[in-house]
Amino acid sequence: IPVAPFDLIVFGGTGDLARRKIIPALFRRYLAGQFEDGTRLIGAARAGLSPVEYRLFAKEALKEFSAEYDENSEGLEDFLNLLDYVPIDATGDDGWEELKTKTSTDRVQAFYFSVAPSLFGALAERLNSYEIAGSQARVVVEKPFGRDQETARALNATLAEHFDETQIYRIDHYLGKETVQNLMVLRFGNMMFEPLWNNHYIDHIQITVAETVGVGGRGAYYDKSGAMRDMVQNHLMQLLCLIAMEPPAIYDADALRDEKLKVIRALQPVAPHHIVRGQYEATDTAPGYREDAGNLRSFTESFVAMRCEIANWRWAGVPFYLRTGKKLRARTSEISIIFKALGHSIFEGDTTPHRNILSIRLQPNEGIDMTVTVKEPGPGGMRLIDVPLDLTFAEALREADAPEAYERLIMDVIRGNQTLFMRGDEVEAAWGWTDPIIEGWEARHDVPKQYVPGSSGPEDALMLLHRDGRRWRDIK
Ligand code: BG6
């Protein structure tokens, strides 16, 4: 469905995120026919480029990062012609008057701050002092949203000086993933799951976000952040919230975010022996984390596994095991709900504790599978086996062409729908939970365990579950 003409201004328009994600996402939405005539897409950055040079930059970005790129297509040319560019000094005065002439205050204006958080204040301030932002202005900010609760609070306060919370869109791109949204529909659009969704029937929950890439190329950023800040505080926490939250009365931004916030507040502090940190080691052929990070004495973790607890009626006694890391065996993100084993089997000789497992795969091969126990075919009596009921979305729903996270999120900004964005208090609360963990590591000079690239992380991570008589699902 086309949206009324709008202005999108990308500060940091020549940056990596613009190249990899924002420009390709806009191109796809353009090809899908969502932009009406009059829509303006404006890059803004320090570089003194002309609009023509910016179009070349965008063309190169699409060539590298867009599957839809076709050198001779009309669509490509038309899209590139939509792009404009303004060289701008975020902390000075250059460029702001020019930007003002290129956007109008009587329509939706989305200002995408794809820049270092230290510039948020300067940008927000100038958008108002130059009277560039109108009443339908929105700002979009990316992670890292602070590096602890104090800095996140300061960022929120800075933005709040210039914009209302309803105008601020904090991106966590995991919320834009098709399957993540499906998680809510699965829970709240079906009769059969929700009655079982509690500590009476669920034994434990596992959330794994495994990557095969290392940190090479972004070592300088990553070494200051580590897996906890880079992945757990935001992406894994969001997944955990969606699984654990109470049903909101309606599917609406604040109703949903209120429920997520309650989950974060009910998360218990994590004892040091319930967390394992890891760093991938060097191999004969590939550098290890420390070389990739350019810091041979680094104590930063590229892997973290932890056992979390949510202290409320629904979840008391159900551990949530979270795990994420770089250079692991496979790229796979999965949430698994492991139900309790049957208390008693009526089938003679059947001693296996059969468990139903509901597994939601976020990527790759988005889908859901459910392990159920059935009779093994054949005349051999009542032998039971566990088999998957598999629903791969691409096949079942012909959804292979679903919009990418950034496409959906950018269009939600334009439409003014904050449901899939984090509210300020939510982000602060999430830091409030991770801060003591990180401070503990720093105070103890905690040294991450080494792990072999291509493995499933350090041995100790396996122990985390073994101790509880459980095991991780395979990373495959
Ligand atoms: C980013 C992290 O937010 O998410 C990266 O900074 C990580 O370190 C990426 O690789 C993973 O995203 P996705 O969509 O590829 O799972």
UniProtKB/TrEMBL annotation:
It is an enzyme of class 1 (oxidoreductase). One of its GO terms (biological process) is glucose metabolic process. SUPFAM superfamilies: Glyceraldehyde-3-phosphate dehydrogenase-like, C-terminal domain, NAD(P)-binding Rossmann-fold domains. InterPro entries: G6P_DH (IPR001282), G6P_DH_AS (IPR019796), G6P_DH_C (IPR022675), G6P_DH_NAD-bd (IPR022674), NAD(P)-bd_dom_sf (IPR036291). One of its GO terms (molecular function) is NADP binding. Residues 184-473 form the Glucose-6-phosphate dehydrogenase C-terminal domain. PROSITE patterns: G6P_DEHYDROGENASE. It catalyses: D-glucose 6-phosphate + NADP(+) = 6-phospho-D-glucono-1,5-lactone + NADPH + H(+). Residues 9-182 form the Glucose-6-phosphate dehydrogenase NAD-binding domain. Pfam families: G6PD_C, G6PD_N. Substrate binds at residues 173, 177, 211, 230, 326. NCBIfam families: zwf (TIGR00871). HAMAP family: G6PD (MF_00966). Belongs to the glucose-6-phosphate dehydrogenase family. This is Glucose-6-phosphate 1-dehydrogenase. The lineage of its organism: Bacteria, Pseudomonadati, Pseudomonadota, Alphaproteobacteria, Rhodobacterales.
